[in-house]
Amino acid sequence: MSAPFFRGRRVLVTGGAGFIGSHLVDGLLAAGASVRVLDDFSSGRREHLAAAAGRAEIIAGDVCDERALDTALAGVEVVLHLATRCVRLSLSDPEGVHRVNSEGTLRVLMAARRHGAGRVVYVSSSEVYGTAVQAPMTESHPLAPTTVYGATKLAGELYAQAMTRSFGLPTLVVRTPERDRLRAALGARGIDTGLHYPIPVHLQPAWRHLGHREGDFPVAEAAARTVLSLPMYPHMGEDAVHRVCDAIEACV
Fold this sequence. Notes:
Layout (H helix, E strand, L loop, with lengths): L2 H4 L3 E5 L4 H12 L3 E6 L17 E4 L5 H8 L4 E4 L12 H21 L4 E7 L22 H20 L3 E6 L2 H10 L16 H5 L8 H8 L12 H14 L1
Parallel strand pairs: 1-2, 1-4, 2-3, 4-5, 5-6
């Protein structure tokens, strides 16, 4: 789904007050979408949405709350489901992680079907793979999560697939890489990883000007396609394209 896809569409972002979710909200607004955010602000912060104030509708609510979901899903065409309890809580509050990540995801999917949403994008995690048995970890890597968080994210993937197969609800699963490590590594090289505009590196004009073709930088392009963890800018010059690709090649 590219920027033109979102123009004029009504989009719900669950977990939109989180670090990644809030940048996604900004990117969607820049793409011309009508954005609604559902967040319980247990970990997300209202200040993350400062740039979206007055432009995005913000609903304080829990993804396990049917009433909140019915309010949030009314009239929505696309759902981007990022609401989650993080991996750090897997040991201290495994039941809470299960409640939000597994039960909450199923409830979001059922509510999306109930309200006739056209698509649900479920943001998963590389934690579904568990300990690496091969490098790099590709989508063919065994699914063997070692944390409750990873298990709940895998459950969410399976719920999404089941809703498609059983009820015809269009879903898409996105497995983000180790985005915190990538963000830190790129930050150390002076590269901001916020999603500013939906133009990834391999679609930049400078990319083609330098004679690159799709597939020339598979690591950079794979990171770009995760959508939620890569630096995106309105326009990048030759030096910027080289700098970003070199940094991603070095740290992914």
